Amino acid sequence: MDFYFNESQQALQKEVEAFAREAALNPLRIIEEEQSVFCWDVLHELGRRGWTGVIVPEKYGGMGKGAIEYSIIMEETAAEMIYGPQNLVQAQQGLLAMGTDRQKEKYLPALASGEMLAAQAISEPDAGSSFENIQTIAEKSGDSYIVNGLKVHINLGEEAGMLMVLVKTANGLTELIVDKNTPGISYKKQDPIGLRSAPMYDIIFENCRVPAENLLGRDGRGIETFLAIFKLSRLGVASQLIGVAKGCLARAVEFTKSRKVGKNRVSDFQGIQWIIAKLTAELEAAKLARNKAAWLHDQRRKHDLETSIAKYLAGVVADETVNKAFTMTGSHACYRDKPYDRYVREVKSLLAGGGSSEVMLNNISREVLRPSYRF
């Protein structure tokens, strides 16, 4: 059992880390944070390096790698709080798992290169982790579906070249691919506290005609498509939480080692040492859980439980780290020109992505309470 990344994975980690540190210094990052706009430069550079197509097979222009490499990219970009290709991987995974050959040929090359963005349109005002109250309707009309409804909390909704939309048809929950500029789509930009480099929108569908060939998976079996996507994409969110926690902890610890208090430094005090030790242990546990789940995915083995555990542990340590950073740094963290308030806002936003910590606990308990589970 080898707990270390292989040579190519270690090289990828170093390359993404170096790129993210440089990209974070670009003045465009300030514009993104202040105005919540997507500046495209990071996406173009990720695409130029091939990282936007990390899980896409080489025949479609991708890297042909797996969940571990995907996790590395998401962790290292999040550590510097720059854009990571989460939305692209979600769409790619949906196409790879459930798409037709025509759909793969049409969309995967552009998604893999970063030429096209994608967005998931799932949440509604009365529907989040539970889909019972989904109100967006798609009525079959000849060789098309007519879509009407409202989706909310959609990162990069207007920038996306294609949307994957969860709707209700006469047969039940269904996923449709909706191309940008399809008549009947309008957008309302929101003002979120976090993830501001991936602007958030409400999306309104009014008599939006979608070709039946854009059905992703089976009509009435949209939950299959959803799960095929989110069993992988939750590892991306877990990796983002790990990345933010890592970046925040590293910065705060460096401060404790340099800040003098009388003849000592902040890091000399046992109370601070215990905080650092506890957070480091929790961060390592989250990384191990994430890596195990990613490995299981790449081995094509069941990983529902492991992915939920990874997302839960990553959320716990990230939330605790961004709060304890204020204990470690004191008033130093309480200013807008320091990153600590943004660490908090990023984590609070990421905790909801892919299901809250409470939803993860529900998932874990459901798996553990199955008759087949063995402790």
Automatic annotation (TrEMBL):
Entry protein name: Acyl-CoA dehydrogenase domain-containing protein
Nucleus listed as a keyword: no
Cofactor(s) of this protein: FAD
Keyword tags: FAD, Flavoprotein, Oxidoreductase
Residues of the Acyl-CoA dehydrogenase/oxidase C-terminal domain: 220-368
SUPFAM superfamilies: Acyl-CoA dehydrogenase C-terminal domain-like, Acyl-CoA dehydrogenase NM domain-like
One Pfam family matching this protein: Acyl-CoA_dh_1
Domain spans labelled Acyl-CoA dehydrogenase/oxidase N-terminal: 6-115
Top-level taxonomy: Bacteria, Pseudomonadati, Spirochaetota, Spirochaetia, Leptospirales
Similarity comment: family membership: Belongs to the acyl-CoA dehydrogenase family.
Annotated ranges, domain Acyl-CoA oxidase/dehydrogenase middle: 119-208
An example Gene Ontology molecular-function term: acyl-CoA dehydrogenase activity
Species of the source: Leptonema illini DSM 21528
